[in-house]
Batch of 2 targets.
Target 1
Amino acid sequence: MKSVSILVPESAVLEAVADPRYLFTAVNQFLQTSGKAPLFDVQLVGQSKEIRLQQGVFSVHTDKLLNEVKKTDLIIIPALFGDMQKALELNREAIPWIISHYNKGTEVASLCVGAFLLASTGLLNGRQCSTHWAFANEFRNLFPEVDLVDGSIITEEQRLYSSGGANSYWNLLLYLVEKYTDRDTAILASKYFAIDIDRESQAAFMMFNGQKDHNDEEVKKAQEFIETNYPEKITVDQLAGQLALGRRSLERRFKQATNNTVVEYMQRVKIEAAKRSFELSRKNINEVMFDVGYTDTKAFRSVFKKITGLTPIEYRNKYNKQAGTNMS
């Protein structure tokens, strides 16, 4: 089971609390219907058992208090409402709680202006983040050490996720569903909730920055080797031999440190390089495919679509308009 803790902040946007809860519990139902076990243990957590929202019009009853959560796999920080600095003050008790769980290996995702609370932890310093475009200037003033990117972008960096404004958080939630389950389940969820899974290609805009915020030096060496030699055919056995580690030991440590398997990491590095090439060059699909180390067109298209949500030609046409008519 994956434990999902949805934080219910003071001054939260009600929908940004209810929607992720509804989505993850619905995915459990989809899995059960297909004969699989439910995957997500979804809990609402907060500073008190009852949190009143929108001037007391609504109240949310949490499942656990912050100090009752001993371990969780994912923390979701919903959007905040009203005066951001006041909202941050009301939720100051949540800040050390988020930091503590992140340091234990928990992933943390902020929805829309929930990024303000995530940024207050300091975990985003020197890293990229997205939030609602209307709050961009205020965010930059409050958190100058965070690299705020375009509000249409979903970011992922070292177990920290963020989404842009308003309903774009659905795309981040679907991305997390796909990460924890598979593409087919995410597509089913997108159809059930009537969401375009690749709306404005936010998945295609995903920022992949090799996850190196860990202390496993051998894994860092493996990451650096993959990133330097991604066009070459690299095997897990080859990496393990270079590091004088057993294959199983490397795979276990790599997954623990980066939250990706070795093969997933190789794929993501290759696809990131392909994305940049499509954006900046006039090379066709086959040229880019060979440049990043693929020889099988079908495999390249499949992995590219899985990671970005778009086919190579769709990605190229969308993000390199000048080259869009020069595909093959």
Target 2
Amino acid sequence: MTYRLTTLPSGLRVATEEMPSVATVTAMVTVDTGSRDELEGEYGIAHLLEHMAFKGTATMTARQLAEAFDEIGGQNNAYTSADQTSYYAKVMAQDGPLAVRILGDILTHSTFDAEELERERSVILQEIAMHEDMPEEKVGEFFQESAFRDQPLGRSILGTTDSVSRITRAQILTYMRRGYGPQHMVLSIAGKLSHDEMVDAAAEAFADLPSSAGPSRDAAVYTGGEKRQEADFEQAHLVMGFAGLPHQDEDFYALQMLNTILGGGISSRLFQEVRELRGLAYNIHSFAYSFTDSGTFGIYAATAPEQVSELVPVVAEQVLSLTQQINEAELNRAKKQQLAGLAMARESTTALAEWMGRHLLEYGDYRQMDDLVQRVVSLTPEDIQRTARRLLSMGPLSLGALGPITHLEDYETMKARFSL
């Protein structure tokens, strides 16, 4: 496999990784702006804009775009995070330049037709309503709001019914002009390809992309705290956690390993202790989310109302145990899980395209497989214990709680349980 990088005169970086043994190509544009870059009155606009991808340009209607992909058996999609927004197309290898041209078209010549905009607005309002009916999603938003109170990172990427209802076409264009400049974007392409051919296609497709100053992003400040709400569900839904680590932190990979050991699989400490041995929850897992300058680490659990008071002390005990002992057997299992995940992703053109775009925006270079493998293999039990102590000392507990939570103890008692 061959990695190459070319920066166009506009500042747009075109990164490719050639995979001669595959038959497809994924082209992805990653933009260095996301929901945390929205201003007052724009909440939900990053996600709405992503939904408007492939909904019509100056040269093709939404239907024509859909037919263009169906005619070549291609796939396309887009997604939004707090830090970035990505648009991609996966096609057969011979259609790689066409995928690049279509991505360039939607990001430079989208018309944001009024009827299409209202239709997509309606879709997102239904998506917001759907999340209201999903306690595992809603309690996650409670947790994020508690972790970053009164900050963009504490808001839902979807926005609210009120904010999305008010966003105008003019606001979308202003938001794009502010953040969608070539200096703040990466076009990453992985699969069976010619780098020079892709660069030529990109130079033409993105020629009309205007320069921009880029988003002015406030630094994240982890606050901790709680948000709880009584609701008529069968189970109590909890998310408990702490400040996490940004992507560039020296302990980033140790955190991923810690997450695997604590709650990343069926052999994890939480799954074995909480579900298998005690039967306190059907669904329990941990997660580690990283942003450019911060992150969150949390544990999600859903349990019967009468078992809430028993569940929390057990979870706290398992979290604290990470600071005291990590045995070689569980560390080796976690390493094999991580390495297997890397190897499987390495065979995916879409995963590689995503890695290139994210790495170039966040690190300034592309961390290739050998480097990632070495970082995982070199981790020691002491690295995991040290990282666990860091997590517990970086700020107070964050808590989201939703459902029949009468038996859930008060915040100060819970916070003390997770203290070193």
